[in-house]
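Ticket #4471: structure output looks truncated?

Reporter: J.K.
Steps to reproduce: submitted the chain below (155 residues) through the standard prediction queue, then opened the result file.
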Amino acid sequence: MKKVLNLTLIALFTFITMQPLYAHTWEDDTPKQDKEKTEVIEMNKAMFIKDIFDYEKSKDWKYLGNKPAIIDFYANWCGPCRVTMPIMKELAQEYAGKIIVYKVNVDNNKELAALFNASSIPLFVFIPMNGEPQVFRGAADKATYEKIINEFLLK
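Returned output as attached by the reporter:
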């Protein structure tokens, strides 16, 4: 019993003393304007109306953005959503300057979720510069999303 207690104390001490080494993240050093180009951006209703489409003023779709976009409708409790989040982060970095990747928490933004009938998640909305957005339901692998980006958003 004494050995277990000693090992537990050593492990706890090691964890506490090593924690500052791992507390720093690289993204803390990234300037804000660069973060917006390379990260998935959390979106709410006000941002959607300003940057994507003002559905309160018009029923006819008119994309307001200056780059093609992906909107990831997700929830923190959703397993498949947690699987696709790192993929979306990679795509935001790899296609930086070409597309913008947003995420919308359906629990916090029920009106936006209803706008795209996000009754099951994850749900991805691919928005080209011209034309109607396309909805993709469910999780997929990175290659699938890359194909949609290259053939639909960046064609």
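Triage note (M.O.): checked the attachment and the full token line is present. Strands lie at 41-42, 69-74, 100-105, 123-127, 134-137.
Status: closed, working as intended.
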